[in-house]
Structure formats: C-alpha cells, structure tokens
C-alpha cells in the first residue's frame, strides 16, 4: 500500500470510530472550546479523532489565554538554548498562540492519554538540534501531564533516553546531523551520501521521527566535513540541494528496506525555517528575529516556500513504505516571534533557527500526537 493509501485508511478508521462513538451517545467533544487537559481514561471519548480529518498544516495562529501547555521552569530537561524566559526574554505573548487549522480543531494534547496508548513503546527523534528541540518539548509536555511519575534519564554522545517508568514509555533522541554518515578517511572527514551506518540503532523503535536540513547549508568553519562522496566520486563540494536530495534518498532507501510499517510508524519532520531576513515576512527594517513579539497574521507567508521542501516532498513521494510528513514549515514560518534570538543561554549571537520552549515545537508535537491517536 502506498503512503497516501495507508494514511487514507487510518483516516477512514478514525472517522468510523467517531461515528461509532456518536452512535453510542458518547460523541467526541469539540476541542477548540475545551481548554483543560483531557483525561482520556473513559473508553468512549476518543479525544482528537475529529482532528484527523483535515489538513492540519493550513491555518493561522490565534491568541489563546490558556497557553502555554506547560511552565518551562518545571521541565526536567531543558537546554539553556531553548529556555528563553530563564535567560531574560522580556515578552510573553509568544507563549500564547494556538495553531488553528482552517478546516478543523487540533486535538488538545493529552500526555496521560499518550503514555497509556503507547505503554511499553519507544518513540525516537533522529536528527540535528531541531530534533533536540522537538524531543525536549515532548518530554516537557509529558512531564507536565504526570509531574509525579517516575522517570529515568540515560545519555551518551549519540543517544539520550527518558523513560516514564510507570508506563514503560521511552522518549529518545538519536543525534545525527545528516542522517547519512561522516567517515574519517585518509584524505579527511568525508560526508558519505550513500551510507547510513547508524541505522542499526533505529531498529526496534515503535515511532521514529526523522529530521535533517540545517547542516546541509553549513560552509566554512561550521561545515563538519572536508569532502563529499557521491558514489565513486569524491568532491570538495557540490550543490547543497543536490547533496541533500542524494542523502535523503539514501535515507528513504534505508526506510524502505528496513522498516516494517506494522511495527513502526515513521514520520519526517518537515523543514524548520529560520527568520534571519525581515523582508521575507514583509518587514524591511527587521534585521532578523530579534524583537519580534507577534506571529505573522493570516495563513500565507510572504517569503513563500523553502526550496528544500521540494526535495523532501519529491523524495518522500517516491518511497514505497508509508512515511508521514509533519509538514510544519508554513506554520513555523508564521512564527517569526518564536525563536530564542538573544535569550538563548550561552549560545553565541542571535539564534533565529531554534525555538523557545515552551513554544512552537509543542505544536509540532500536538500534531504528532494527533497522528498517533
Ligand atoms: C479521569 O476519568 C476517570 C473515569 O472517567 C475518573 O475516575 C478519574 O478520576 C479522572 N481523573 C482525573 C484526573 O480527572
Ligand atoms: C550509547 O548508548 C547506546 C545504548 O546504551 C549504545 O548502544 C551506544 O553504543 C552508545 N554510544 C556511544 C557512542 O557510547
Ligand atoms: C489579521 O487578519 C485578520 C483577517 O485578515 C484581520 O481581521 C485582523 O484584524 C488582522 N490582525 C492584525 C493584528 O493585523
């Protein structure tokens, strides 16, 4: 079954379950109007099923007094880089926005429900620091739902694992900047567009959320390789979008060859945008994201799509195994106000790439949650 067919089937099941629930007289609530955390213990209330039936990535940001979803000071792991309030960000309204898809409501995130549904399972984010951002967001959100639950934390250079031991749910981060390998060879560090050694560590996981892009653009001192290998050719450099296409295709082949869709759900976290040029959002005076306190109004971004999005859609479109694209680019582009900017701990300079927590990645996880229902 192709990925579209697969997800249509999931959607159909979701719709059927809503229908059955309403026939039983236990209709799902309209989530847009409930601002408490749901409970999720009563079997008739499949909260969120109503949110699945629409394009969740088209919509706009609305002010919502009940946000944020958690108090960042209570989160058990939060890198200084994302902890904007602790590091002096003076404004707070960026915390107060809820994503409103045009055609439906996003189900309210319910951490307890997620832990119960995914009891005994492993959820792993694989990718660069944008994955760290989303991983820490999910840990904060789950912890806020069950603040007294026991957790364990294990960490080494590549793998960090938080386990909610009462539920047996592990939320993991596998650090990989390119997904494909960088190998030390005689000539120096080689980015190998055709090889994924680390894939072995991703097997046996129940939910995989992949991401890579930002490092593909890095040049000079912040480029962690000396050569790029493309098949038989070893090059000093190549067009970065072409390289990204080849690397992502290697990843796609790995997924097609190694993933059993009955056991593992695979997501690709779409391109996370940066806000380093005001003219992109129609503000000639803004040098970057610093001082932005409001989202872009409405549902369109003046700067238009990011070229790397085209690579993602074409590579994912050619896969044989179902991969769900968390297509977060547009909704994130609208959040020029959601970056750490100068309030990012020891991070040097202006950070207009990562995102404050609490903040935007919570919405990415809300959508992930909706897709996991
Ligand atoms: C959740 O719902 C169950 C059954 O409806 C109830 O027994 C329980 O007290 C509720 N828990 C909370 C925290 O509201
Ligand atoms: C990190 O920990 C994992 C799981 O315990 C292990 O498989 C892996 O080899 C470790 N990696 C490093 C670099 O130590
Ligand atoms: C945002 O757009 C909506 C609809 O176009 C409009 O009603 C509203 O006044 C705008 N808000 C701001 C702050 O510009």
From TrEMBL:
How would you describe this protein's topology in the membrane? Single-pass type II membrane protein
The keyword Mitochondrion is assigned to this record: no
- The Trichome birefringence-like C-terminal domain extends over 106-370
Keywords, alphabetical: Golgi apparatus, Membrane, Signal, Signal-anchor, Transmembrane, Transmembrane helix
Cite the Trichome birefringence-like N-terminal domain residue spans from the record: 53-105
Q: Where is the signal peptide?
A: 1-25
For this UniProt entry, which segments traverse the membrane? none
GO (cellular component) term, any one: Golgi membrane
Q: Which domain of life is it from?
A: Eukaryota
- Cellular compartments annotated: Golgi apparatus membrane
Its chief place of residence is Golgi
Keyword Lipid metabolism set for record: no
- Example GO molecular function: xylan O-acetyltransferase activity
Family the entry assigns: Belongs to the PC-esterase family. TBL subfamily.
The name this protein goes by in its record = (wild Malaysian banana) hypothetical protein
